[in-house]
What we know:
Layout (H helix, E strand, L loop, with lengths): L1 H20 L4 H11 L2 H8 L8 H12 L5 H21 L10 H8 L6 E6 L13 E4 L2 E3 L8 E3 L1 E3 L11 E8 L8 H9 L8 H14 L4 E3 L6 H5 L7 E7 L7 H12 L4 E6 L14 H8 L9 E5 L2 E6 L5 E4 L6
Parallel strand pairs: 1-6, 1-8, 2-4, 5-12, 6-7, 8-9
Antiparallel strand pairs: 2-3, 9-10, 10-11, 11-12
Amino acid sequence: MHGHDLAAGVAENYLAFAEEARDRSPGYEALATSVAEDTGMLRFVESLPPQKRQPNLLFAAARYLLGDPVDIGRLRDLVAQDGTELSAVMLARRTQTNEPARCATLLPVLAELPPPLALIEVGASAGLTLLVDKYSYDYAGHSVTGRDPLAPTLRCEPRGPVPLPARLPEIAWRAGLDLNPLDVTDDDDVRWLSCMVWPGEGDREQRLAAAVAAARRDPPVVRRGDLITDLPGLAAEAPAGATLVVYHSAVLAYVQPPDRQKFAAAVRGLGAVWLSNEAPGVVPDLPVPPRPEAQANQAQHGGADEDWPFVLGRDGTPLALADGHGTWLRWLPGIQG
Length: 337
């Protein structure tokens, strides 16, 4: 009975992912739906540890081995012929999506903090979202010019009273922390990063390539370490005169709930500014704002772009809803930046 329940749980997870991908990546919507309906595929996914069953990880690993995005036929063949190798990639790798456009949702908050800033990103992957000041930005015509003219321009649609940044923040120091850092100068790590991009998402792959090129010109420091036990030691290296900011995007969902509480306590103990950009309900004690009525109506009638928002929070206060990949930012009414 337990095995049956487990299969149902895996199938539900893949159907939920299909819904998330519906208007973003039709290929992944179809693939996730097919996996959820395929007994053999569910059996393969069940054979993996619970933390290694994510659709993102399976699809990226298959792409890593086969060279391009897969359909259900190629995925079935891969499991049948090279299931052991596919498992090995999934066990060795993590879902380390490093979407530089998330910087566009963080910048309005960072730009209003007292300069200079000392940045620590936990779950930093290859460190592309540490390079906030390198990129240029376009908020529906409101432009901010980055410090690297060759770095990509990140486009984000502001909604509501977003405090649009007048300038880039001055960053005195920056470092990332990750259990398994990716090295932007390593071609194999960069290939894994590219495999995490969902097919059919416009210019995301080109933006990633341009961000990697920017990072290779000035590689960010990403330390190997645990977000709870190793955070205080890294924070102690930050210059004393700077505003310390600890931030993360799409990281805590992969952390067990008791450890989320420990992380929250660790950050608060640093006296740092804490910026979180995570799915609703993931950050301890961060209230989930109600969705605006227009947004709820849009979702009922098939509008998709705000179906799966992140909540952008500062020190336990929700500031905005944000697209998980940084394409829009909806500031909450009455919130001062």
